[in-house]
Amino acid sequence: MAEEHRAPASGQQPQRQRRVTRQHSRKSKVAGAFLYVLFVIGLSAVLATVGWVWANDLLALNKEYTSAIITVPDDAITYTQETDEDGNTYTVSKADMDEIVDQLKENGLIQYKFLFQLYSMFSNADEKIVAGTYELNTDMDYRALVTNMSSSSSTRQTIDLTIPEGYTIDQIFTLLDEEGVSTVEQLQETAATHDYAFDFLDDIPLGDYHRLEGYLFPDTYTFYLGEDPLYVINKMLVNFYNRMEEYFPNFTEESQYSLHDIVIIASMIEKETDGEDYRDIASVIYNRLETPGAETAGYLQIDATLVYINGGKVPTDADRQIDSPYNTYLYQGLPAGPISNPGMESLYAAMNPNDTGYFYYVLNPETGLHDFSRTLVEHQAKVEQYANAAAADE
Q: Which uninterrupted H or E stretch holds 70?
């Protein structure tokens, strides 16, 4: 007789099946917890590694030493005017961090540009960095890199630069550009538009950078590379002020010659001689200015004024016909402005000319000094004498 199989009652599970299900659930939970722990440990390890790498870059740890010259050009800095609560205006500068960060990365001073950008954003680095040339190295952390590109930086590169006596403003600006102090364009723009607070410039209108011709005192200066052109020019103007301050009381409304006249005269003296006859050259200029009825009829006839308007070339007879207020052959009296930036010896000679009867001078090639004459006949005889001597030597 076949054995009967009875189905279990509805809603009931076999005891063995329930035990297997519970064991499988327990194992799954253990496995899940283990995987989660592994994930947390792995993630922590990754984050710790990344964090350590970032920290090394941020804090300049474990870096191979290297140094580099970094230049922040003036055009990488923008300037804006802001007003405080009291209504006072002040200037805020901000650096283009993208250009700076690129240089730091390219020179191996940082590894992670985004990290330096992030640091810069929270530390307002763009408001601290100023234009200039700096020597930086991998011993500097992010904070030190920013500090060493600020106005108070001790790593900012400087240059000792001598401005020769008699240089024109164009020659000075070109020299400053060639030596990396500032650019010709920036210097010209600043000279033309900035209203420097010196009384001796009050009557000289803005608009043309040549307005400062004669007042950029020739001397040896220490400049920062990439310096603000405003401070470059101001440094030379301050020097002029300091050298001439004791003489300012001599120039009043009643004075026959103004300070500007003296600077013009000194600028011609500076270009006409580099010897020991400054005050005799000055006497010729004053004799011609103050004796309009003489043979010269008030014309200074200074060749250096022709050089100033012909682009620095040796003057020709044709140059004497150039229609310019600087042409002292074509126009009587002083030229329209200074033709160079004179040194103190020329300025002193312009204020203290020798008392002579000279109206002419010609360079003596043997002595390197000028021979002076009272009359045109005497002067022409000397000119012919030196010309014949030069021809004989050939």
A: strand 67-72
Distance CA 297, CA 289 (A): 9
Residue 365, C-beta contacts closer than 8 angstroms, at least 6 positions apart: 386, 389, 390
DSSP 8-state assignment for residue 275: S
Q: How many CB atoms lie within 10 A of CB 379?
A: 19
Please tell me the distance from the alpha carbon of residue 361 to that of residue 303, in angstroms, as a whole number.
12
Distance between CA 347 and CA 341 in Å, rounded? Answer: 10
Residue pLDDT, tens place only, 136-175: 999 998 888 999 998 778 888 889 999 999 999 999 999 9
Digit-coded pLDDT (tens) for 59-99: 777 788 988 999 888 888 887 878 878 877 677 889 999 99
Vertex 372 angle, CA 370 and 378, to 5°:
125
Q: Where are the domains of the chain?
A: 67-147, 158-246, 259-393
Tell me which residue of 158, 128, 133 sits closest to 146, measured CA to CA.
128
Question: What count of Cα atoms within 13 Å lies in the side-chain half-sphere of residue 353?
Answer: 20
